[in-house]
Amino acid sequence: MMKTRMVKSEEAGHEWYVVDIADKVLGRAATAIATLLNGKYRSDFTPHVDNGAGVIVINCGRVKVTGNKESQKVYKRFSGYPSGKKETVYDKMFEKDPEYVVRHAVRGMLPKNKLGARMLKRLKLYTGDKHFQAAQKPREYKLQ
After folding, report:
1. Are 92 and 133 in contact (CB under 8 A)?
2. Boundaries of domain holding 21
3. For 61-107, how does the pLDDT look when each residue is reduced to its tens digit (9 = 90+)?
4. Of the candidates 98, 100, 97, 122, which has an alpha carbon nearest to the alpha carbon of residue 110?
5. Is there a domain that residue 50 lies in?
6. Is the dihedral angle over the CA atoms 109, 112, 116, 117 positive or is it negative?
7. Domains in the chain: how many in total?
């Protein structure tokens, strides 16, 4: 009988990957990125330990969406004051901050707790095709 190996947080290491999302669909790319951050691709995945990878995403400014999302998808926020609800359409949000669009999509696919917040800190986003994480020695990750 085999025992299930549970990784301790001291044993967890983080490898780094570079993901190019130029001309990729936002949701599918976000799913792959969230899987890497979560560590679910590893054979020693442990749900309560942060043993996922660090992800460097380049070309955020060239990601695509399908259907009518460019004109119909809405980002909402609320200030907490009366009539403080603000809504921004995808077009304007993407033009203003394409990195926010990708971060928002990935964040929705991570756990909604302290562990998810820690995973999100290892997500580095860049609008262009250059990044500044050469010291982490990242490997290239190909999206389908």
Report:
1. no
2. 16-65+98-141
3. 999 999 999 999 999 999 999 999 999 999 999 999 999 999 999 99
4. 122
5. yes
6. positive
7. 1
